[in-house]
Design brief:
The complex is a heterodimer. Chain A is mainly α. Chain A has one domain: MetI-like fold (Orthogonal Bundle), CATH 1.10.3720. Chain A contains 14 helices and no strands. Chain B has 2 domains: 45 residues; 205 residues, MetI-like (MetI-like fold). Chain B has 14 helices and no strands. In chain B, helix 1 packs across helix 13, helix 4 packs parallel to helix 7 and helix 4 packs across helix 9. The radius of gyration of chain B is 25 Å and the shape is flat. In chain B, 46% of the residues are buried. The chains are: A mainly alpha, B mainly alpha. Chains A and B meet through helix 1, helix 3, helix 5, helix 6 and helix 7 of A and helix 1, helix 4, helix 5, helix 6 and helix 7 of B.
């Protein structure tokens, strides 16, 4: 069981020992072979990412879908966006959404994984069933929850009526829209955290726990000092994947309210999409996205480094 | 006295265990309700007529009217087929180009190997909207907008990193000796690959291919921007059911059901490899 995202020291050693691919002994012609083999895959990806670098250049122009020509405008787009209060609002929404969704999913997923710890037939069946929502596309998840939350036909309305709540506004109100979006995100993505943490639980070594039991350690103490530290590398990977996705969430919010009501759910992805297509200003849409991209990369790097440190610690070297 | 005490303690402990188990099962059942009821409710709604939708909950006369309306009355089935072509094509291209790349990353030592591997992974974390805006521009210029090939190409951003990273892990688990033995027997490289390696990684390859298919099937941002009237994927077509004012909820349910069903079936096949695929090979569950 390895939980490292990049380092594979044992692998490299194996190859050197077996001597099959000794870098210096192979003829020069053969040395290029791996690059040839990898080329098609890389070319396809890079082909699609040339525009990606074009994005950086276009962010310095006033490119618009309405006009046939465009010109270089320097840092104007960047200065405009940094002066625009709407940008800071969308940054706040992005962080709010990512924080709420990721935190809920991490807590719920880890909790349920711990409940599923005992390997019984019941828990094995549940584990399979719990993966279903994870397969649902964001737009379809919104449809499915529309059937649940609709005030005319939704079953949740009928349940809430019993408690004396009528016409709960869900996505239609400023105060409950974020809650509704996070609820749907949680429904879809909690199983991801659950599966990863459960895989971690099942890989835990038995002996430290037996030792703790012999020493008469309490359940909470065992959890705090043994289980949690050993699960942390797994939780970091779950956190990494979830946070990166939540920071750029588009599908759920777009299908749910297109960023509304008002600008309640306008995160950076949605703001940029609307700037580009509704207001037809591509150049002005890009700086926000580039800032988001840098933010995501920075957080990802930080998380990967921390995860590696933790994985090393928990493996004891 | 002593034995009595320990019996009492035992009783207390078993009582504690029982409440623990009861609480655990309660928690699991509550979460199961949250996770599964929306899907069950969706299935129920597919069989309700528009009239019964409003005044019944669980007791109603089932009807197939919604299925007929969606499958025959709209082009939803066409979108389903088009989605199948685009996602299937994307996975095919990924397998053809990605498996060799995964092999090279697993077996050879070459300069900047880890750098290239990590670069491939980082594509997954780029904001989709940011990738798609300039691609939209270029696709319109070179005539790939709203074509099968254009979508299949751009889907590689989703499917290729997944497949390369996961399959690379499976290649690394095969011992080099097997390959060497086949080479010593005088098999040319392609036979070594197809006859010894491919059968060994097949379960992993099929699983990651299916997972890549699910990811492509679910893609929303790319087809939203890059497809027009010619090609309509299911996720985009389903938006129509949200936007309209006079909603036929039964048809909404059928539309979701058709979109979800193939994925649930695929998901059942890849259970064993699911954790590994979802974490890009980082967690070998």
């Amino acid at each position: 069981m390895s939980v490292s995202l990049k380092e594979r020291p044992s692998q490299v050693q194996n190859q050197e020992q077996s001597g099959r691919i000794n870098y210096n002994e192979i003829p020069k012609k053969l040395r290029r072979r791996p690059y040839y083999i990898i080329a098609p895959g890389l070319l396809i990806l890079i082909g699609i990412l040339i525009p990606f670098f074009a994005a950086i250049c276009l962010s310095f122009t006033n490119y618009s879908f309405k006009m046939t020509t465009f010109r270089f405008v320097g840092l104007k787009n960047w200065i405009n966006i940094l002066k625009d209060s709407a940008f800071y609002h969308s940054l706040l929404v992005t962080l709010q959404y990512a924080f709420c969704a990721t935190l809920t999913e991490m807590l719920l997923g880890t909790g349920i994984a711990l409940l599923l710890k005992k390997d019984t037939k019941f828990s094995r069946v549940l584990k399979v069933l719990f993966t279903f929502p994870l397969m649902v596309a964001p737009a379809i998840a919104v449809l499915i929850w529309q059937l649940m939350t609709s005030n005319s036909i939704g079953i949740l309305e009928k349940v809430l009526n019993v408690f004396g709540v009528f016409n709960f506004p869900w996505a239609a109100s400023h105060s409950t829209a974020l809650f509704t979006a996070v609820l749907i995100d949680t429904w879809v993505n909690t199983p991801f955290v659950l599966l990863l943490v459960l895989a971690g639980i099942q890989s835990l070594p038995k002996s430290p726990f037996e030792a703790a039991q012999v020493d008469g350690a309490g359940a909470w103490f065992t959890f705090k000092t043994l289980t949690l530290p050993m699960l942390k590398p797994f939780m970091y990977i779950a956190l990494l994947f979830r946070l990166m996705a939540a920071l750029q969430e588009f599908g759920i919010i777009f299908a749910l309210t297109k960023g509304g009501p008002g600008d309640t759910l306008m995160n950076i992805s949605l703001t940029s999409y609307l700037t580009a297509f509704q207001f037809q200003k591509l150049g002005a849409a890009l700086p926000g996205l580039l800032i988001l991209w840098v933010l995501i990369n920075y957080i990802a790097k930080w998380l990967v480094n921390r995860q590696r440190k933790l994985a090393r610690q928990s493996q004891g070297y | 006295m002593n034995t009595q005490e320990s019996a009492g303690a035992k009783q207390r402990r078993s009582a504690g265990k029982l409440t623990g188990a009861a609480l655990r099962n309660l928690g699991l059942c509550l979460y199961a309700l949250f996770a599964l009821f929306p899907l069950i409710w969706m299935i129920i709604c597919t069989f309700k007529s528009d009239a019964e939708m409003y005044n019944t909950v669980f007791r109603f006369t089932p009807t197939m009217e919604n299925y007929r309306a969606v499958l025959l009355g709209t082009d939803y089935f066409k979108a389903f087929l088009q989605n199948l072509v685009v996602s299937g094509g994307a996975v095919l291209l990924t397998v053809v180009a990605g498996v060799p790349a995964a092999y090279a990353l697993a077996r050879y030592d070459f300069k900047r190997k880890e750098g290239i591997a990590f670069q491939i992974l980082s594509f997954k974390f780029a904001p989709e909207i940011m990738v798609v805006l300039p691609v939209f521009l270029i696709f319109q210029k070179i005539g790939l907008y709203d074509t099968y090939f254009g979508l299949i190409w751009v889907y590689q951003v989703i499917t290729m990193p997944l497949l390369i990273w996961v399959v690379r892990g499976y290649f690394e688990e095969i011992s080099v000796e097997i390959e060497q033995a086949a080479q010593l027997d005088g098999y040319p490289w392609f036979q070594v690959f197809f006859k010894t390696l491919l059968p060994l990684i097949k379960p992993g390859l099929v699983a990651s291919g299916l997972l890549a298919f699910i990811f492509a099937w679910n893609s929303f941002t790319f087809p939203l921007v890059l497809s027009g009237f010619q090609i309509q994927t299911i996720t985009i077509t389903s938006l129509r059911y949200i936007a309209s004012d006079t909603i036929h909820y039964g048809q909404v349910a059928v539309a979701s059901m058709i979109a979800v069903l193939p994925e649930i079936v695929a998901c059942l096949f890849i259970q064993k490899h699911l954790v590994r695929g979802l974490s890009f090979g980082a967690v070998k569950g």
